[in-house]
Amino acid sequence: MSNGADEIRLIVEQVLRSADIAALLGADGRQAGTDAQKAAPAPLGGGVFATVDSAVQAAAAAQRELSALPLETRRRMIGAMRQAVLSNNEALCVDAVSETGLGNVRDKQVKNALAATKTPGVEDVEPAAYSDEHGLTLTERAPYGVIGAITPVTNPMATITSNSVGMIAAGNSVVFDVHPNAKRISNRLITLLNDAIKSAGGPQNLLCAVAEPTIESAGDLMKHKGVALLVVTGGPGVVRAAMGSGKKAICAGPGNPPCVVDGTADLVKAGRDIVAGASFDNNVVCICEKEVLAAEGIADRLKQEMRANGAYELTGSQIDAVTTLTVPSFKGPHAENAPNKDMVGKDAARIAEAAGFEVPPETRLLLMEVGREHPLVWTEQLMPVLPLVRVKSVDEAIDLAFEVEHGFRHSAMMHSHDIEKLSKMARIMNCSLFVKNGPCYAGLGQGGAGYTSFTIASPTGEGITRARTFTRERRCTLVDYFRII
Ligand code: NAD
Q1: CB of 222 within 8 A of CB of 230?
Q2: Which of 15, 143, 289, 479 could form a disulfide with 259 if both were Cys (CB 3.0 to 4.6 A apart)?
Q3: What is the distance between the alpha carbons of residues 283 and 396, in angstroms, rounded to a whole number?
Q4: Structure confidence by residue, pLDDT tens digits, 66-89
Q5: Which of 102, 215, 230, 466 best tests ligand 1's pocket when mutated (most atoms within 8 Å of CB)?
Q6: How far apart are the first and last CA of the chain?
Q7: Contact 379/329 with Cβ under 8 angstroms?
Q8: pLDDT over 60 at 203, yes or no
Q9: How far is CA 258 from CA 27, 72, 389, 411, 467, in A?
Q10: What's the longest Cα–Cα distance across the chain?
């Protein structure tokens, strides 16, 4: 039977056949941009503006033009945007890895392809009608106008693609303030999408961006009176800032997804799925498995299956060295802890090397069995280092999963065939995304049913965002007439 990991492997194989990525990137696939490249000012034009104010003004004019265009044109624009990402996917991903130094080209291509093909479009904002003896009521979904979108360094392209498709499908324009460490690739993608929109008969500057984004420019965007809605995707700081801005804000914040495995699980599949999910784009995706909580009866078998699928299990001093390296200033389980930014999104082998030992270069994940108070259990590490805690029972695992998720209500996973425990964990976690018996990305529609988004709004409750999330609901009632039966 096909699953998400198989699908991803197939895509990866196609991708690897299509170009010699290693030659483009250098031996370790992680060549960072040169200092000169990073310092070069971003080019203006193609939707990229020098100031927040000029970007908002251009976006407002473009949104008025969009409102006057037929829906058919909007559908064509969305189709052209999807195609533009797919046609340029490989080159975009090579440049993204080069600029940000995070993740890997193959998985970024999977993320982009997913965002381009499975983000809902215009069909998601269909009107609804109600009729009865009192007449007819129509509900339509109106755009907000100009949306201010703030995007992360971890998924710069998939977030921008998914946001752009959904927000434009809903009739909005967007001003992006992208992560400064991904500004070149992000703004290049925005220009590419604008070109696609124009080629399909759409207005220019429907997607705008700030050439030199900073925390200050993000703050200016949050305060700008021409911005009707904020959509922020990032860590706790940007979420707090957006929620305190006084504007309506849709906030996609941090997570720390636990993965529970009990004695009824298919351990062969669980081991394979956990390694595939936790190593996906080197774990920079917010939904990736961040810690495994395994019932003691199956913990050894599970680790064996994980090792068979590319996990390298650390021992004694290796665990100590990797812990000190990856979470250098742990403030305690319930505090807001941050990982070592220099290690975020790096390859497993590179992290091991930095910690002073070698692992086989093909290692996908560093696995470490630790106690429940261990720093990596409580920290959103965003790197392919996965702690596993052995617990007495599945109930203890579920209770611990709730604690380590910090109440983010973001994402969680469980491998089990006990429907009572699956239901119990789903209810207790009450997350935006809960994956049963699959890798994390199945919950985003990669090898799982349903649409995708890379803005998962847990703090503000919208969950997996979609075009209709970016609309206001409008009701129009005609009394006594127009019912036809
Ligand atoms: P980050 O918070 O450092 O940056 C995200 C964006 O917010 C950037 O554009 C940054 O410039 C801006 N920003 C940061 N602090 C700000 C502030 N105080 N005021 C205004 N703007 C500010 O996050 P990152 O490192 O780019 O991304 C990783 C984090 O994002 C992780 O915590 C991850 O879980 C989260 N994330 C969540 C989702 C989701 O859908 N829920 C998706 C991707 C990433």
Answers
A1: yes
A2: 289
A3: 25
A4: 999 999 999 999 999 999 999 999
A5: 215
A6: 48
A7: no
A8: yes
A9: 33, 43, 11, 8, 29
A10: 78
How far is 482 from 137, CA to CA, in rounded Å? 9
Ligand 1 neighbour 105 (Cβ under 6 A): no
Render pLDDT for 259-307 as a digit per residue (tens, 0 to 9).
999 999 999 999 999 999 999 999 999 999 999 999 999 999 999 999 9
Residue owning the nearest CA to atom 22 of ligand 1: 238
pLDDT computed for residue 43 by the predictor: 53
Cβ–Cβ < 8 Å for 290, 381: yes
Nearest by Cα to 156 from 228, 74, 98: 98
Closest residue CA from atom 8 of ligand 1: 179
- Give the whole-angstrom CA distance, residue 64 versus residue 57: 11
d(CA 186, CA 174) in angstroms, rounded, equals 14
pLDDT of residue 44: 82
Burial of 479 (0-12, 13-18, 19+ CB in 10 A): exposed
pLDDT level of residue 21 (50, 70, 90 thresholds): very low
Amino acid identity of residue 120, one-letter, is: P
pLDDT category at 204 given cuts 50, 70, 90 is very high
Query: Quick check: CB of 287 below 6 Å from ligand 1?
Result: no
CA distances from 345 to 134, 316, 459 (A): 59, 24, 24
Beta-sheet strands, E only, within 324-422: 365-369, 385-391, 411-415
Rounded CA-CA distance 10/440 in Å is 18
